Amino acid sequence: MPASDVPGRRLTDIRRASRYVLAVIVIGTLVLALHPMRGSNSVNLIPFDHKMSTLRCMANGGCRWMLLSRPVLIDWIGNIVVFAPFGAALALATWPDRRAPGLLWWGRTLLTGMLFSVAIELAQTLVPGRITDIDDVILNTLGMTLGMIAGYVVMRMATHQLFTLQTLRNEGNSHD
User: Fold this and answer.
1) Cα(141)–Cα(130) distance, rounded to whole angstroms?
2) Number of folded domains in the chain?
3) DSSP secondary-structure letter at 125?
4) Among 33, 79, 122, 124, which is least packed by CB within 10 angstroms?
5) 30-87 residue pLDDT tens
6) What does the angle CA 50 – CA 56 – CA 57 come to, to the nearest 5 degrees?
7) Does any domain span residue 56?
């Protein structure tokens, strides 16, 4: 392999490994989100309808204990945390060759993550005891976006480092 292709090869290796990680995350997310639960199904299509009373109470300082309650920990933080690794892996797996991603990459990647979340919510209508909630789509997309940003930062640093090292090698070889 020519020395000039080392950065491209390493980026390909990162993308390939990220695709495997992404597959594991997708399977794990589907198992977690589509596991039947006790109770009846419900659908909420009004954003943050059920969570606004909790937010108001917390904002007024009347119920700080709610920071550790199920709606906060599972519904808000859980949906963000579960989708952040998905966003990071998706960003790394779809990183373009030898250039920084443009708006089209950001748009396609965000749309992919959002559609994955929508598909899960729609599938939950068929699974006993699951709640289909627009809040989940919003929070999942937020988590995925945060993960994408983290993946973007990692890849920008990695590509900068790889190409800087390659440039230094090339300059060193030209002086020999």
Assistant:
1) 19
2) 1
3) T
4) 122
5) 999 999 999 999 999 999 887 777 767 767 776 665 555 666 667 778 889 999 999 9
6) 100
7) yes
Residue 43 within any structural domain of the chain? no
Q: Which residues are registered as beta bridge partners of 132?
A: 43
Concatenated DSSP letters of 28-49: HHHHHHTS--SS--EEE-STTT
Q: Which residues, other chains included, contact 95 with Cβ-Cβ below 8 Å and sequence gap of 6+?
A: 11, 14, 15, 18, 101, 151, 155
**Tokens 């900068």 found at:** 160
Match 């299509």 to its residue by tokens: 45
Token look-up 């909790």 returns 54
Range of the domain at 114: 3-34+49-169
> Does 174 map to a domain?
no
Distances (CA, A) of 168 to 108, 159, 161, 174: 34, 14, 11, 10
Q: What is the pTM of this model?
A: 0.81
Q: What's the DSSP call for residue 99? A: S
* Helix runs in the chain, H state only: 6-33, 52-59, 70, 79-93, 103-124, 134-174
Residue 175 lies in a domain: no
Strand partners, 55: none
